[in-house]
Amino acid sequence: MKKTLVFTLSILALASSAQAASLRHDICSRGKLVAGVKYDSPPFGYLDDAGNPVGFDVDIVKEVQKDLSAFCKKTVTLELKQVVSKNRQEFIQNGSIDMAAATTTATFARMDSVDFSNIYFVDGQRLLVKSDSSIRSVKDLAGKKVGTAQGSTSETNIKAASPKALVQSFAQYTDAFVALQQGRVDAVTTDSTILLGLRASAEKPTDYKIVGAFFSSEPYGIIVKQDDSKWRNFINETLSRVGSDGTYKKIFSKWFGKGTKYVLTDPKSQITVPAQYPVRR
Questions:
Q1: How far is the CA of 46 from the CAs of 19, 41, 173, in angstroms?
Q2: d(C-alpha 123, C-alpha 219), whole Å
Q3: What span, in angstroms and rounded, lies between the C-alpha atoms of 166 and 75?
Q4: Please, what is the end-to-end C-alpha distance for the chain in angstroms?
Q5: Same fold, 23-122+220-267 and 125-211
Q6: Nearest to 66 by CA among 215, 266, 237, 249
């Protein structure tokens, strides 16, 4: 009986130790945060002229890095890894990255395999077409070729919104935009702010226009591994801080404010914001 009790207590101790383990501790130990960001989604994540990843999501990640350095009581460096819509969840699951700030819509389906932070941005899906296009909304897409990204909610949404559209999925949104420029697709669809960035990246942005009403709600969350509430909540604390101390407003103005290539009013004023997130499977 005594041996059984000792064995049971040992198992409980091991279980308690396993539950206490967190990526937050691992990051402090190694002194480095590895974060996934996109390179194909200006102004959220893209490469500048020097080849460095920059963007709204990158700046949010840097705030997490800043808070980690304070928490760990030492400098925590930042390594940014490229992710695309198709592989960002896989990279979280296999441990290639610690977090992904990559224009990811929080859905119940994705929560079957990963966890999300609190929502930090809300957008909605629209269409990008050439300026002389007759396409005005999703109602005009029957028989039209529409480009989007593999593994994205945009891919799912457009098939539901326009079943007769000929959807072509690309590895990256930039690839879909090149196809539009070359006339291989009639439209590109994804979240409006990403379309804004793609349009601004063109040699002549006026050759393209964003059309149609929003036909989805896209609440963005940061992806983390499941069952690590300490790490998820740490990120949530950073999001709470930047929201209350004015940092979020500064980052928003930097990328979407007046005088930028991506001028945008508060996205929450442009679409219906659901009472809770996620909004769908």
A1: 36, 6, 11
A2: 6
A3: 50
A4: 49
A5: yes
A6: 237
In CATH, 23-122+220-267 is 3.40.1080.10: no
Judged against a pLDDT cut of 50, whether residue 59 lies above it is answered with yes
Name the architecture of domain 125-211: 3-Layer(aba) Sandwich (3.40)
- In angstroms, rounded to a whole number, what is the distance separating the alpha carbons of residues 116 and 10? 33
- Return the pLDDT at 263: 83
Average pLDDT, the chain: 89
**In this predicted structure, which of 10-14, 24-28, 44-48 has the lowest mean pLDDT?**
10-14
The ranges assigned to domains in the chain are: 23-122+220-267, 125-211
How far apart CA 208 and CA 201 sit, in angstroms, is 11
Whether residue 21 is predicted with pLDDT greater than 90 in this model: the reply is: no
Confidence at residue 217, expressed as pLDDT on a 0 to 100 scale: 87
Q: In this structure, are residues 152 and 220 in contact, taking their beta carbons and an 8 Å threshold?
A: no
Give the integer Cα–Cα distance in Å for 46 and 15: 42
**Greatest mean pLDDT among 3-17, 33-47, 262-276:** 33-47
The CA distance from 107 to 105, in Å, is: 6
Helices (H), the chain: 2-20, 23-30, 56-72, 88-93, 153-161, 173-181, 192-201, 229-244, 247-256
Query: Has residue 196 got a pLDDT over 70?
Result: yes
Which pLDDT does position 261 carry in this prediction?
Answer: 87
Q: What is the pTM of this model?
A: 0.83
**125-130 vs 208-211, strand pairing mode:** antiparallel
Name the one residue in this structure whose structure tokens are 């992710």.
83
